[in-house]
């Protein structure tokens, strides 16, 4: 078997260490990289295009719930993402699946289960616990709208959600202010929002227990 390149994204060092140990115990010839924030995740994927799978926590710094999942799926659609979370409510699991995750591993599972789940996804399958929650049309609509955004527009949207002004967004992302204005206009159009506040509310809906509230 050729070497597998996995990326574990979680801001808790002890949890990362436990996950890495489980992966190395369960999968032969595995190379594991670790990051602790949404920004570091994005940089790692840009620098290492050979990543085969991402294990992603939902509560990292810089992430708005499922925003990191959606960003990875939009910018790197060929890389499967498996959510690793302590919040295993059926609705959270269902939302992860609707937003493009290939699997969902509760942090409460036995260590050997992590390797089994990752192996199943790497084989082209899906790995989810049994779910009682039903599919949400609002989440499906939200996901389809967000999928229209380019990776740069998604970054701008997250800055909007943090309440940054165009000048601040330009400084944060290294863009010209006029470029930010163009992105904001395109974002509002694609998301069918009439204001920056309305767009920020959509990002809030990406929180694990958020309600998209779309019509």
UniProtKB/TrEMBL annotation:
PROSITE patterns: HTH_LUXR_1 (PS00622), HTH_LUXR_2 (PS50043), RESPONSE_REGULATORY (PS50110). The modification 4-aspartylphosphate is found at residue 57. Keywords: DNA-binding, Phosphoprotein. The keyword GTP-binding does not apply. GO terms for molecular function: DNA binding. GO terms for biological process: phosphorelay signal transduction system; regulation of DNA-templated transcription. Pfam families: GerE (PF00196), Response_reg (PF00072). Residues 5-122 form the Response regulatory domain. It comes from the Bacteria. Residues 142-207 form the HTH luxR-type domain. This is LuxR family transcriptional regulator. It comes from Stenotrophomonas chelatiphaga.
